[in-house]
Write a structure and sequence with these properties.
The chain is mainly alpha-helical and 174 residues long. Helix content is 68%, strand content 0%. It is flat.
């Protein structure tokens, strides 16, 4: 018998390395995160439709309920409307600061021992009024922009709008 491979009864098996398990879990998590980001970018539906992801103000038209219209407008029209919107309504940063202050007021009202329903409703109403006003300003700017289009540009816009809502055209042969 060879005594090179024999273990003595006093030797103990090695304890499992916990740091290896942590490294494996962290690696798997990171891989899944990257895979999710890649899949999200691939299947998000923003390919080739001039989706402008460069900042919150650039999505104002889309965010205030004008999604298909924003998608159908060409890049120059969206930019011009966005600039006019910021000029009339203020920057996203300024408006966000006001909304954050309102939110802080709501939290104070909610955390108070005695709930003030009137103050809570008034704060929510002020928020809704500001958002409604921004929507009305944006609607006015979109109508003005479309009204300034030539008949040919409006027809092209109508075609893009129809495509934006994924609806088959009923009048393509016109």
């Amino acid at each position: 018998m060879s005594d090179q491979t024999q273990q003595t009864p006093t030797s103990e098996p090695r304890p499992p390395r916990r740091w290896m398990r942590f490294v494996l879990v962290a690696s798997l998590t990171l891989n899944l995160l990257v895979l999710g980001l890649v899949a999200g970018a691939k299947f998000s539906g923003h390919r080739g439709d001039d989706f402008d992801h460069r900042g919150p103000e650039r999505g104002a038209i889309r965010d205030l309920g004008f999604g298909p219209i924003a998608k159908a407008l060409d890049r120059k029209d969206r930019r011009d409307i966005g600039r006019a919107f910021r000029k009339e309504s203020g920057s996203f940063k300024d408006n966000r600061a006001v909304l954050e202050r309102d939110f802080d007021v709501l939290l104070l009202i909610l955390r108070n021992d005695r709930f003030d329903a009137i103050a809570f409703e008034a704060t929510m109403t002020e928020q809704a009024d500001r958002l409604r006003q921004r929507g009305e300003t944006l609607r006015k700017l979109v109508v003005e922009r479309i009204g300034a289009m030539s008949a040919e540009d409006r027809r092209a816009f109508a075609d893009r709008l129809e495509s934006a809502v994924d609806r088959p055209s009923k009048n393509k042969d016109r």
